[in-house]
């Protein structure tokens, strides 16, 4: 189960993750996940709580890695909300992954936004550094640089490939987008603490700190803080073991 508490609007959302016998997610809340050959499709999500189920994402997979994805979603830019097409390209070079996304208006293919991300991993395969550049339609540019440290003193047993997407009401990638893939948690599994993660919301860029922790009551808890002090969101992940 995924429980998302939005402290800004005091809203709470509970989502259920369903898995098949191979441990693959087949349903995220009411959203089906389909596997067809080298494609994975996640859709139709309710964007912006409007009842307009446009967030349909298709991943093109090559050798087990995402190569390209296409999404239809609602995107908020300033005070305007657009129906947008998002195209993302993934490039892998050594210990670095480049993820570049273009957003264009569905109606006239007008450019809305570009997000360029560089993800650097250490020798153990853990995320070490993230650099992101946002380019808006008015040519304004903002950038973010994130560092990760790790707590190596965690002692927790689990047997599940746990993944969760948390998408803010403002649209995919617009304010807070979170992907967690912990794999099999074993003794001394390292869990990251995200230091100074930058998020772009409209024309403003915020610095946010995300705390991660494991305990018996909430197997995974993520708390997102604005400027290290104001709690914006709390995410609790729990589950029933597959075996």
From TrEMBL:
It comes from Phocaeicola vulgatus str. 3775 SL (B). Gene3D superfamilies: 2.40.160.150. It holds the Pfam family BVU_2266-like. It comes from the Bacteria. This is DUF4595 domain-containing protein.
């Amino acid at each position: 189960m995924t429980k998302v508490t939005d402290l800004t609007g005091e809203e709470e959302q509970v989502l259920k993750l369903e898995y098949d016998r191979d441990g693959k997610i087949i349903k995220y809340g009411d959203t089906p996940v389909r596997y067809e050959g080298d494609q994975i499709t996640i859709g139709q999500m309710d964007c912006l709580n409007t009842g307009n189920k446009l967030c349909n994402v298709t991943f093109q997979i090559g050798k087990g890695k995402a190569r390209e994805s296409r999404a239809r979603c609602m995107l908020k830019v300033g005070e305007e909300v657009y129906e947008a097409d998002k195209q993302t390209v993934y490039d892998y070079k050594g210990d670095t992954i480049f993820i570049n996304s273009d957003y264009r208006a569905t109606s006239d293919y007008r450019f809305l936004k570009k997000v360029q991300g560089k993800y650097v991993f250490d020798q153990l395969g853990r995320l070490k550094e993230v650099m992101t550049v946002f380019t808006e339609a008015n040519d304004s540019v903002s950038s973010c640089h994130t560092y990760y440290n790790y707590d190596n003193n965690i002692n927790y047993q689990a047997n599940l490939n746990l993944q969760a997407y948390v998408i803010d009401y403002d649209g995919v990638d617009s304010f807070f987008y979170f992907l967690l893939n912990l794999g099999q948690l074993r003794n001394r599994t390292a869990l990251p603490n995200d230091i100074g993660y930058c998020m772009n919301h409209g024309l403003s860029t915020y610095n946010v700190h995300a705390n991660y922790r494991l305990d018996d009551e909430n197997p995974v808890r993520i708390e997102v803080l604005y400027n290290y002090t104001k709690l914006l969101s709390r995410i609790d992940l729990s589950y029933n073991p597959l075996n």
